[in-house]
Amino acid sequence: MGLHERRQREKESIRANILDAAFSLAKTEGWGSLSIRKIADAIEYSAPVVYDYFENKEAILYEISLNGFHCLHIELLKAQKKHDTPEEQITAIVDAYWKFAFKNKEYYQLMFGLGMQCSGKGLMKEEFSSFQDMIYDCTYEIIKKKGSNPDNACHSSHALFSAVHGLISIMMMRNDDIPSTMNKTTLDETVSAFVKSL
């Protein structure tokens, strides 16, 4: 391995360590307490080294949120591929989305700005609309099968996304006084009623 390749690999390693340290700190202390100084201390470098790789804390948060959307996208695709009909797919996709949110709370909070400012404000995230797009595709196919008006697919799928995201947000922000089983039952009933209404 040449000197240039070695330096490049070292840079990539430091960059990855910065992101890993930031995410680990968020898991233990919350996103609100994250700082460049804490990240630098965690990787045993000075703060200026962190700034060599990222312009500011917002840039680090944005990068982590992109990774969250990528991981979510993979889970949604896995769920979709297990089923053939749009009715089964939409149920599986919503369920995978729900599971991802609570298995990866730190990611979800950052991705959608729950209890904090949403990272990357004004910047397009390639996979940001993955869930909405998949919900729309299934909705459109169900409507087409039923012979209903396909023009309603956009509005209907957005309504379902809003309901799912709303339930997750409520549960994450008020999980002490709302039983998780109640919310999951509400979610399942909402999806079932949604499919029947199309």
TrEMBL record:
Residue span, HTH tetR-type domain: 12-72
GO molecular function: DNA binding
The entry's keywords: DNA-binding, Transcription, Transcription regulation
Residue ranges: DNA binding: 35-54
InterPro entries: Homeodomain-like_sf, HTH-type_Tx_Regulator, HTH_TetR, MT1864/Rv1816-like_C, Tet_transcr_reg_TetR-rel_C_sf
Keyword set includes Transcription: yes
Keyword DNA-binding part of the UniProt annotation: yes
Residues in coiled coil: none
UniProt-recorded name of the protein: Transcriptional regulator, TetR family
Native organism: Chryseobacterium polytrichastri
